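Sequence in, structure out.
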Amino acid sequence: WIKRMLIRNIGRLTWKRYAKRNNISIEGAEVLKNLPDRNVMFVSNHQTYFADVIAFLHVFCAAKNGQYDSLENKSYLKNPRVNSYFVAAEETMKKGILPRIFAYVGSVTIQRTWKQGKEDVNRKVRMDDISNIGVALSDGWVINFPQGTTKAYAKGRRGVALILKKYNPVIVPVVIDGFRRAFNKSGLKMKAKNVSLSIRFKDVMNVDLTKSADDILAE
């Protein structure tokens, strides 16, 4: 009930940013109708630390209440979807009280293998991180950002392919746009109004998970 309350309140505090101050376009959300309640992974590009994730939570809550192409009627926040999770860098979720609250709402924190703060590193995947993503998938939907960064056109990381091979979730690709123009890098502050935001859900992918991680990532 605490998580439900937090999602509801975060939704109320941020609703105007998406429904009124900017123009959000939601395409293909009808695909959400036929998804199972568990073991679904959304793979998306990434533009801000939190504005993207909050937008996904709004869309998922709206879809749960039969509202697929708009956030116009905010009554969906009375009955939020609580079993939604997002993969985030451990260091990001420790920067201040608001990230810690978002962490409670549904983050699966991971230790990045290639970067620590501003330093480049090279370390092995922490297997507990993979297991925690599996736990989240067993409970609901997980949003994963394979690029692992908000930098435009960054390459995807092989780790997401390994997760897909291990847990065989339903895979839903998503393309987002406009968030980098409307919000600052953290996504907690608006920097422009009347920006066209878009979230486009594509059809479920049928990926041959017997392929190599590199081939899966390329697909």
